Amino acid sequence: MTRGNFEAVVLAAGKSTRFGELKQLATVNGVPLVRFVCDSFRNAGVRRIVVVTGNRHDEVEAEIPDYATFVRNPEYEIGMVTSILRGVKAIADSGAPFFLTPTDVLVTPADVRRLIYEWKSSEPEPMAVVPSFGNRRGHPALFSSDAKDFFLRLGPDDRGNRVIDMFDQEGAVNYVLFPDDRLITSVNSKSDLHRVSAMLPL
Predict the structure, then answer these.
(1) What CATH number does the domain containing 36 carry?
(2) How far apart are CA 5 and CA 7, in angstroms?
(3) Is residue 142 a contact partner of residue 6, using CB atoms and an 8 Å limit?
(4) Which domain covers residue 112, as residue numbers?
(5) If exposure means fewest CB atoms within 10 Å of the residue's CB, which of 33, 56, 147, 177 is most exposed?
(6) Nearest 5°: phi and psi at 45?
(7) Rounded to an integer, what distance in angstroms lies between the CA atom of residue 38 and that of residue 189?
(8) What is the DSSP letter of 125?
(9) Distance (Å, rounded) from C-alpha 38 to C-alpha 9?
(10) Residue 189: CB partners within 8 Å, gap ≥ 6?
């Protein structure tokens, strides 16, 4: 199993009902969120990035960088787990560890590098490395390639965090404490976006 290459699945299929507009295209420093998140992974050295689209997919796909690929989830209205399944299936041919994150968490290249450092420093290899703040989990989570089989067993009514819950019970999750709540905050309103954007490094 390789420890040098990393991949990322970015979930960008939802309706953004609470946000009031298409959240994936809301901007941070003039950059649409879906591109912002992809750029953060790319600039941290993640070699393969797959974006899962669904709602208003043409608009979202127009903002996905050329270095990333996308898969469409026609079942996105059933729930996020269907997008997780689409994304994990898209990278199932690889033995690389992979990140899993929604587009509404403002992750930076430094965050990604910190999680990769924790991964590479851990012995034995964990099933997951997860950012945390105040005893709460955040995103992006970094998973062992072996976790793909567990995700692919999920049904449409399962919660996506069921897999982490299981790994946690086995003591196979390494938590990385971050200094603020940026990575545990899903941007569900414009005020959320304004508040969390202010935490980003200059």
Answers:
(1) 3.90.550.10
(2) 7
(3) yes
(4) 7-197
(5) 177
(6) 95, 10
(7) 21
(8) P
(9) 9
(10) 18, 19, 20
